[in-house]
Specification:
The protein is mostly helical. Helix content is about 100%, strand content about 0%. Keywords: Coiled coil.
Length: about 80
Amino acid sequence: MLIWIVLAVVLLPLVVLALAVRPVLARLPRLRRAAVALQRRAAEAEALRDTAEALQRRAEEVQRRLDTTSQRLAVIKAKRG
């Protein structure tokens, strides 16, 4: 009788644990695919960020050129009177 009680106390929690872990293990492949997709999206976002920064630098350079050209144009107009 004591053996049955000990087996029930030991085996019942193991069965409950197995039943609780089973759905999690079933979801692991989907979670892995989702993690890979998120990593890919993060890499794409990083590439887009780099491109945006380069575009911002280019826009600032074009703005500086525009300012310089505007100043030169003002000087030319001032010389013509």
